[in-house]
Amino acid sequence: MPYDSRDDKAFAFDGDWREFAPIALTNLLLCVVTLGVYLFWARTRERRYLWSRTRFIDDRLEWTGTGLELFIGYVFALVLFAIPFSLINFIALNGAMMRGHEGLAALIGFVMYLFLISLTGVAIFRALRYRLSRTLWHGIRGGSDAFGLAFGFSYLWKTVLGSFALGLLIPWSMTSLWNERWGRMSFGPHRFHAEARAGSIFLKFLLFYLAPIIAFFVIAILFAIFGVFAAMLGGFPQGGSEGGGAPPEGFMVILFAIGAAAYLLFFVVLGVVALVYYSAYFSEAVGKLTLGELQFAFTATTKDWIRLFLGNFLLVICTLGVGQVFVGYRNWTFFIRHMHAYGEMNLDTLTQSTTREPGQGEGLLDAFDIGAI
Amino acid sequence: MLSTSARSDRSDPPGTIRVWHYDGVNGLRRAPVLVVDGDRFTLAENGASDGPYAFADLLARDAVAGETVFGLKGRTGWRIGFPEGVPDVLKPLLPKPTRYGGFIDRIGLWPAAAGSAVIAAIVVVIVLNSPSVLARAVPPSVERQLGDLMTGDFGDRSCAGPNGPQALSALVERVDPGDGDIDVRVVNLPVVNAVTLPGGHIVLFDGLIRKAVSPDEVAGVLAHEIGHVKHRDVMESLLRQLGLSVLLGGLDGHVGGYTNALLASAYSRDAEARADDYAMTAMQKAAVTPLPTAQFFTRLSKGEDAKGVGRLTAYFASHPMSHDRAAKFLASAKTHKGDRPALDADQWASLKGICKTDPEAQKKPSFRF
């Protein structure tokens, strides 16, 4: 039967943080006493809760992943990649350096760096595929038939190319990689399609790109003004009892305060501008995503993104870090709140996914400590 | 629209329970009745019957909004849900949902947490303490191979000016008599430092030799590095680093990194203090005065703040504070009698010029493969 969600919001979250708190806090306790091993089970419990309180059209989502498969994935990645990498780094790279073979060391380092970039791509792809394959709606799951190796290669060359032209191709590499990985994903019998374009977000990227340069000039001008001001004032204290010589302490304090303020301003401004770009990118990316007859949209404004990040930041700071356990909850509700879907989903033709179910979880992503949104 | 709630006005025959059902084949939500037959059941809808299935093959899923949901072993997406809760007659036949997972559900949250905390404490103690035992268990030949693998011949940076190596050997023989296992080299880098590498390789950087005021000062640094070799400190710290990075790998990147740095540096400071103790004993035996070494540390301590912030950041430092080290070397001088210079004037001159007078080492470092 067709579903039309034009009037209603297709995505809704009906959980409550008080209901989630016992899960989050016991997760924290168990993670601490197991030296972090419980992390994989904790993440699974968190997702089970978040998914189960998320309604899409007429039914809830269900997370079917397990802590064990996440754990196994992590161990795999550690044994297959992280440990050999450290050994190569430690023995081959050091050895080459110590023998005075800087050229060889640089070559080894360079090859390892390229390999690491592609592996990051593979990790991102496989994490998305895993998450879709463990997400159930109406008893149907998603997935992908690709292993992610091809995506890893694309990720490598698009990232490298993206950083060419002084980084001006980054919007292109981000959108084209988004299109590529989502284009390989499916839910039930339907393939996702993504046609995000870099053109529409390029101006905002330019803003982000130029902000540090502009900020630098503004700060330099401020310092110059202060310098002139200080030199003018500097004439006065000489008549006082202390006499001239070392600058008065007050000046140093003001100078230091201006320096600190400029430093903070620089990062706050840069962070905000980065969010202006990122919110535009994410709206474009989700907005050009379709699944069968369904279209998606993401409507968070830059202000919403800032509120999310500022809220997370204050939550963690004010609770001395304990609030970290609620960050995942906040991110998920933010995501669902601003996520929209339009169009139709025919349940008669929504048949089970025939993609291969991956055996284990997001190990690569964990082993290399890559955050994912 | 599909019906999503069971209609209670319809009278179902006894022994049947209204459920909702996904078969995992397509997305249609069905509303069959569950017909119990001993330890098995069938799902009946519109005259058609699906099953039988064994209750033992059901898997408990999370209950949402009072609805208890079950999956079926080996069938992705197959679900039955009891919109009005599970009838009492069925409860003994159905599996219990997992909450925390695995053994924690069996023994309860608090006993599991307490048990895990004890195990965690034991693991931490083992990981922190076993490297010193393990390092001594690694055969010297294995360590030597590892060292050779890492350092090789130091390329062409190892200096050998006229009579330089002989002067260096004399110095080594003086502070560590009759030990053939230690390999000391001077490497042409303008760094005021010395390092000990696995396999008894000690590297003195030329910057240190040039800055040194007397051979006794170099002897102090050398004796300290020999202390590291004797205590197998390098192997121990390698093993500890490996253990800590695996142990703390599960933690969030930053937390893990800081904890790692804090623990590793605490052990490193201990090792440095032990190497200092070794050096003082060795210098006393060799009758080499520790005063220039004390002065060397006093010079280093000029840059550090012994009270305020310096004391605080010392917890992250790999070495003890130079101020304290200078005081210790100074105090050890009181026990010395009849000290003789570590090298004579000619030997000292050869050592000073070991890199400067070596044409090979003076070549500009090339970009080699």
UniProtKB/TrEMBL annotation, chain A:
<dbReference type="Pfam" id="PF05987">
    <property type="entry name" value="DUF898"/>
</dbReference>
<keyword id="KW-0472">Membrane</keyword>
<feature type="transmembrane region" description="Helical">
    <location>
        <begin position="104"/>
        <end position="125"/>
    </location>
</feature>
<dbReference type="InterPro" id="IPR010295">
    <property type="entry name" value="DUF898"/>
</dbReference>
<feature type="transmembrane region" description="Helical">
    <location>
        <begin position="305"/>
        <end position="329"/>
    </location>
</feature>
<feature type="transmembrane region" description="Helical">
    <location>
        <begin position="20"/>
        <end position="41"/>
    </location>
</feature>
<protein>
    <submittedName>
        <fullName>YjgN family protein</fullName>
    </submittedName>
</protein>
<keyword id="KW-1133">Transmembrane helix</keyword>
<feature type="transmembrane region" description="Helical">
    <location>
        <begin position="253"/>
        <end position="278"/>
    </location>
</feature>
<keyword id="KW-0812">Transmembrane</keyword>
<feature type="transmembrane region" description="Helical">
    <location>
        <begin position="146"/>
        <end position="172"/>
    </location>
</feature>
<feature type="transmembrane region" description="Helical">
    <location>
        <begin position="206"/>
        <end position="233"/>
    </location>
</feature>
<feature type="transmembrane region" description="Helical">
    <location>
        <begin position="70"/>
        <end position="92"/>
    </location>
</feature>
From TrEMBL, chain B:
<keyword id="KW-0482">Metalloprotease</keyword>
<dbReference type="InterPro" id="IPR051156">
    <property type="entry name" value="Mito/Outer_Membr_Metalloprot"/>
</dbReference>
<keyword id="KW-0645">Protease</keyword>
<keyword id="KW-0862">Zinc</keyword>
<dbReference type="InterPro" id="IPR001915">
    <property type="entry name" value="Peptidase_M48"/>
</dbReference>
<keyword id="KW-0378">Hydrolase</keyword>
<feature type="transmembrane region" description="Helical">
    <location>
        <begin position="107"/>
        <end position="128"/>
    </location>
</feature>
<keyword id="KW-1133">Transmembrane helix</keyword>
<keyword id="KW-0479">Metal-binding</keyword>
<feature type="domain" description="Peptidase M48">
    <location>
        <begin position="183"/>
        <end position="328"/>
    </location>
</feature>
<keyword id="KW-0472">Membrane</keyword>
<keyword id="KW-0812">Transmembrane</keyword>
<dbReference type="Pfam" id="PF01435">
    <property type="entry name" value="Peptidase_M48"/>
</dbReference>
<protein>
    <submittedName>
        <fullName>M48 family metallopeptidase</fullName>
    </submittedName>
</protein>
<comment type="similarity">
    <text>Belongs to the peptidase M48 family.</text>
</comment>
